[in-house]
Amino acid sequence: MIKMEECYYCKTALSKDDKALCKKLLGKKIKQFFCREHLAEVLDTDVETLNEKVEQFKEEGCTLFL
Predict the structure, then answer these.
(1) What is the CA radius of gyration of the chain?
(2) What is the Cα–Cα distance from 14 to 5, expressed in whole angstroms?
């Protein structure tokens, strides 16, 4: 059975892009993942900036976002 990753704070199910974004910005060995809203709070930014970063990383060919 595959374990679905959840936001550490609100327990929302995370997409693969959400998990990849957490790894990219917080480090590949992290154990706690966050939805974009809570990741934005942790990083003191906004969700729109994180959405732009996801697209940027995909365009750059980052393997976390394949």
Answers:
(1) 11
(2) 6
What six digits make up the tokens of 9?
């704070």
Q: How many Cβ atoms from other residues are within 10 Å of residue 63's Cβ?
A: 7
> Which residues on adjacent β-strands are paired with residue 13?
6
The amino acid at residue 30 is I
Residue 7: how many other CB atoms lie within 10 Å: 19
37-62: per-residue pLDDT in tens? 999 999 999 999 999 999 999 999 99
Report pLDDT for 4: 77
Of the candidates 9, 16, 27, 12, the one whose C-alpha atom is nearest the C-alpha of residue 54 is 16
Predicted TM-score (pTM) of this structure: 0.91
How far is CA 58 from its chain centroid?
13
Tokens of 49: 């900036």
